[in-house]
Design a protein that fits this description.
404 residues; alpha/beta; Rossmann fold; 2 domains; six-stranded parallel β-sheet; 16% strand; binds uridine-5'-diphosphate
Length: 404
């Protein structure tokens, strides 16, 4: 099939770890690669955020990345991108008047959905929507600190009713969408996958001290990822070290406000000598860090899907996660890891310490985690399920509203 992925702020070619570069980038890159490997013609449309970017780039994984000129050719925070979506969709419509028209558009994040829907109204190409995150959930947890455009929640509701199919990534998201007023019948649940070649138990591991258990935690350095809870929990895990991967490149951690806050908190909690921030790590090196860990901790306040627990599981690393969002689906409590309430350093610390004290449990979790990731979460399987959805929506004829 000819498939257009729209990912306005999250380029599959971006360096990850920064504030707006994480799971969606990985998702779009891996999904596009898996679809291309299955013989599909995939083009990813993302905003041109630097002057020196060529319009099209061929990824080594077999898909094309198209840089859409919409807004200034420089980084713009994702919460400031809404005004540029009209321009984004107009450019798509013009482009698709040429020799390549997609059979389906798969939009990632709500603003991509708006651009996709506007383009669809002109071209008749059906739209499949993955939200990756929902404004209602963000507002609930972040309150006044949520910098999303005020109309986000309303737009997300409308999108859910207007697109041809909504892809929910976990059961929790289905519930949220239903409560927002998106009919269940419009949704299909297709979880993200994990790259089973990059994330495997065997392979090089980052250096570590043998006698000090390592807790790893990974993600964009933003408050809702719960790194503060992890630092506080370290007081309950006296022998271990905690490695935090993510954020700006190592050299810029000194000036990163959130990294500074975390370090200050570690000093206050008396654990500064056991908490290490390493900054952003390239995607292809992430396996080294997972493999060096005894336990992966994922402690977000909320999590639309959560790739890092799954990546750790694929490497055969047990997970202690908060019982939120997609983590409740990927981690099977008492089988592949443990779940604790969010924002509870005592519960988190106790669960981690219990696991570190119990070698046999760790081994059992690791084996089951690896098996679960391998059997249920390959990108090839995710791509196959999505192709079924694409085929279904493309089979329904839509009225074309192309103005001559
Ligand atoms: N990641 C990375 N380098 C980093 C930090 C994160 O490659 O320094 C990747 C990580 O391996 C995962 C993604 O970024 O693939 C984060 O996805 P997740 O779903 O956990 O969080 P999100 O960014 O979607 O909130």
């Amino acid at each position: 099939m000819r498939i257009a992925m729209i990912s306005e702020h999250a380029s599959p070619l971006a360096i990850l770890g920064g504030e707006d570069a994480g799971g969606q980038n990985t998702h779009v890159a891996e999904l596009s690669a898996a679809l291309a490997a299955a013989g599909h013609d995939v083009r990813v449309y993302t905003r041109r955020d630097a002057v020196d970017l060529p319009v099209t780039v061929r990824s080594p994984d077999g898909y094309q990345v198209v840089h859409v000129p919409a807004g200034p050719a420089e980084p713009v925070a994702k919460d400031a991108l809404l005004p540029h979506m009209k321009e984004f969709s107009r450019w798509l419509v013009d482009r698709w008047r040429g020799d390549w028209t997609p059979e389906v558009i798969h939009a990632h994040f709500w603003m991509s959905g708006l651009a996709a829907l506007a383009a669809s109204r002109q071209t008749g190409v059906p739209v499949v929507q993955t939200y990756h995150a929902l404004g209602v959930v963000k507002r609930r947890h972040q309150g006044v600190q949520d910098t999303s455009p005020a109309r986000r929640i309303g737009y997300e509701r409308e999108l859910g009713r207007a697109v041809d199919r909504v892809i929910a990534q976990c059961r929790d998201e289905v519930g949220e969408l239903v409560r927002m007023g998106v009919p269940r019948s419009r949704m299909t649940v297709v979880p993200s996958g994990v790259n089973l070649a990059t994330f495997a138990p065997l392979g090089p591991a980052a250096e570590r001290q043998d006698d000090r258990p390592r807790i790893l935690t990974v993600g964009r350095l933003v408050e809702r990822k719960g790194f503060q809870t992890v630092v506080r929990a370290m007081a309950h895990v006296p022998e271990a070290e905690c490695v935090v991967v993510g954020g700006p490149p190592a050299g810029l951690l000194e000036t990163d406000p959130y990294a500074r806050r975390l370090r200050a908190l570690a000093v206050t909690c008396g654990v500064a000598d056991r908490v290490r921030l390493v900054g952003a790590v390239p995607r292809e090196e992430m396996g080294r860090w997972y493999r060096s860990a005894d336990v992966l901790v994922a402690a977000p306040w909320y999590e639309p899907f959560g790739l890092t627990p799954l990546e750790a599981m694929a490497c055969g690393v047990p997970v202690v996660g908060t019982a939120v969002g997609g983590i409740k689906d990927t981690v099977v409590e008492g089988v592949t890891g443990d779940l604790v309430p969010a924002r509870d350093p005592c519960a988190l610390g106790a669960a981690v310490q219990r696991l570190l004290d119990d070698r046999i449990r760790r081994f059992a979790y690791a084996t089951a985690a690896r098996e679960r990731a391998r059997r249920r979460y390959s990108w090839a399987a995710t791509a196959e399920r999505l192709v079924e959805v694409y085929g279904d929506v493309a089979a329904v004829r839509r009225p074309t509203r192309v103005v001559a």
